Amino acid sequence: MDSGNRFGDTEISDPKVMRALAHPVRLAILERLQRHGPATASRLAPHVGATPSVTSWHLRHLAGFGLVRDAEGGTDRRERRWAAVARGFRVEVPEDEEGRSAAQLLAGEMFARNADLPLRWLMDTAPGLEPEWTGLAGANNTRIVVTAEELAALKDAFEELIAPYVVRRPDRRPPDGRGVRLLMYALPEGSASETENEDSETDIPE
Questions:
Q1: Which of 106, 178, 182, 194 could cross-link to 190 by cystine, CB 3.0-4.6 Å?
Q2: Same domain, 111 and 148
Q3: What Å distances lie between residue 44 and 52, 59, 167, CA to CA?
Q4: Is residue 206 part of a domain?
Q5: Confidence bin at 164 (pLDDT 50/70/90)
Q6: Are the C-beta atoms of residues 91 and 18 closer than 8 Å to each other?
Q7: Residue 10, helix vs strand vs coil
Q8: 40: helix, coil or strand?
Q9: Selected residue with higher pLDDT from 15 and 203
């Protein structure tokens, strides 16, 4: 099911772009620009774990693949300001071996980047939250049995639900609103036979 890219993300299907982005510094740069807006290499450097010169090199590399561009209004080349092309990106996994390998490499870097995010939130942010926010936070680890078409429909429904909040302009955001990270992993298990064996081992008799 085609969601129509409701978030306005950059769509990546070229294995070369996937491999270029599968780098911790480049992912950090792109995420920083997407979340905080245009910045120079010097401004980005302390947040992405690289020197300004290395950060500048990675920015030019990202620009070559159409992921970042010169920010509007930037005229001083000594203080070149960069902006993300879109608020996010999504990957269309090619069917050939090279494409699948590149997509897996990028997914691995993305998973590694976010692996400790929930724990960092729990240790650094959660203790200072007001009760109403603490009560709404949490994680959901649920297993379902669906077809590929049903999973596609679920993902599409989720995007449709949150799209108005994702694309809402800053001047339309409520004054008492705050950023909330929504992490969703759809991790299909093995073959149907493996699933049946697992069910037979873990089901509790009535």
A1: 194
A2: no
A3: 8, 10, 24
A4: no
A5: very high
A6: yes
A7: strand
A8: strand
A9: 15
Note whether residue 58 is domain-resident.
Answer: yes
Residue 185's closest CA among 151, 150, 160? 151
Give the gyration radius of the chain's Cα atoms: 20
Length of the chain: 206
- Give the CATH number for residue 72: 1.10.10.10
> Are 108 and 142 contained in the same domain?
no
Quote the DSSP letter at residue 1: -
Q: The domain containing residue 165 runs over which residues?
A: 138-201
Mean pLDDT of 42-64: 96
Specify whether 25 is located in the same domain as 89.
Answer: yes
pTM of the complete model: 0.79
Domain boundary among 83, 115, 147: 115
27: CB partners within 8 A, 6+ apart: 21, 109, 110, 113
| CA–CA dist 76, 179 (Å, integer) | 32
Backbone region of residue 5 per phi and psi (left: phi > 0; alpha: psi in -120 to 50; beta: other values): left
Q: Is the pLDDT of residue 200 over 60?
A: no
Q: Does residue 155 share a domain with residue 60?
A: no
Per the structure block, which two tokens stand in for 95?
Answer: 């069917």
